[in-house]
Amino acid sequence: MSQAFRDLLKIIGSGTHTGGDLTREQSAQATEMMLRQIATPAQIGAFMIAHRIKRPTFSELAGMLDAYENLGPRLESQTLANQSVVVFGVPYDGRSRTVPILPITALILASEGVPVIMHGGNSMPTKYGIPLVQMWQALGVDFTTLSLPQLQRQLETTGLTFVYTPQHFPAAEGLVPYRDQIGKRPPIATVELIWSPYRGQQHQISGFVHPPTEDRFRETLPLRGIHHFTTVKGLEGSCDLACSRTAIIGLGNSTFERLLLKPQDYGFSPRDVPLVSGDEMLKLWQELLAGQTNVLTDTAILNGGFYLWRCGVSGDLSTGFARAEELLNKGKVWEKLQEISLFRL
To answer: Mind listing the pLDDT tens digit for each residue in 128-153?
Structure first.
């Protein structure tokens, strides 16, 4: 048993009247001891559930991210030093109800010279949905066998890469079984949404479901020196904007602004596409990449156009939507996928 971890656990696990919050340094220490498996399994499980019940403070989340930065993979690039790299944070436990569009969105951005990093693992508790890495494998791109230097070269060469946590951050992967055993998302799930495996100028984009989660993003990211970020109340907590409802978006720059984007104001169909099967998802994507129109077209143009605007490629939303449609119709997004799938050192 780790006595040092036991002392930290007592602080957050002692209840409303006698418990308290960890400092940023204590939170980083506790997270490192969990990642390094210095804490015992009983201690790790107790910490996760106690922290979930208490709810982490902004300083605690910042400390957890400090530990992730200290022990986790870090990409960096002199080639991209003058560019803002987009880092997408989406739930690691995947999608199960609606067809995702993020791979198409990422390809649209990369097609226009916006570098993109994603990260995640395999199907994960508590949702066990389709994870991002499997979506990319369906498109013919397998990031799971690449080393970190290869990922960095891929990012510089193609403008897009993916950090696969079982391969590139095994310490974090070691905490996955605890999520299954406690049956709830621990605060580490919030950390994953705002963790960045990139050292350099960046634009953090994170999805959320509940407003308090977005509040934590807004307060924690500046503590970590991240002032350029976007928050999205997206489909199933992802960064995918829904066609069926007004998009609630936070724009973090030097100040924070709220954007309410109504898809119907731009002529988009008010429907989201249900996820029936992985094969159907792939078929819809392949049609989009071939320049064909289907039930997912509006979702693809809405998301691609919004992010082209938000990342500074397009001067306004309407121009962004038109450009996203053009890139799909002219095969530019398909060409970018081929470039990534054929990437070799």
So the answer is: 999 999 999 999 999 999 999 999 99
Segment 286-342, tens digit of pLDDT = 999 999 999 999 999 999 999 999 999 999 999 999 999 999 999 999 999 999 999
- What are the residue boundaries of the structural domains of the chain, listed by start? 3-71, 85-341
pTM of the predicted model as reported, rounded to 2 decimal places = 0.97
Residue 155 in tokens: 């990012």
What does the DSSP assignment read for 131-168? -HHHHHHHTT---TT--HHHHHHHHHHHSEEEEEHHHH
Say if CB 73 and CB 299 are below 8 A apart: no
Per-residue confidence at 196, pLDDT binned at 50, 70, 90?
Answer: very high
Phi, psi of 3 (to 5 degrees): -65, -35
**Cα separation, 314 vs 306, whole angstroms:** 9
CA distance linking residue 283 with residue 267, whole number of Å: 24
User: Among residues of the chain, what percentage have pLDDT more than 90?
Assistant: 96
pLDDT tens digits along 206-217: 999 999 999 999
Task: Give the pLDDT confidence score for residue 344 in this predicted structure.
Answer: 79
Instruction: Report whether 136 contacts 142 (CB < 8 A).
Output: yes
Q: For helices 211-223 and 58-71, give the axis angle rounded to 10 degrees.
A: 60
CATH code of the region 3-71: 1.20.970.10
Phi (first) and psi of residue 336, to 5 degrees: -65, -40
Class of 85-341 in CATH: alpha beta
In whole angstroms, give the CA distance from residue 240 to residue 237: 8
What pairing do the DSSP bridges indicate for beta strands 247-252 and 256-261?
A: antiparallel
DSSP 207-241: E-SSHHHHHHHHHHHHHTT---EEEE--GGGSSPP
Nearest alpha carbon to residue 221 among 195, 243, 199: 195
C-alpha distances (whole Å) from 49 to each of 19, 35, 37, 185 are 14, 16, 17, 9
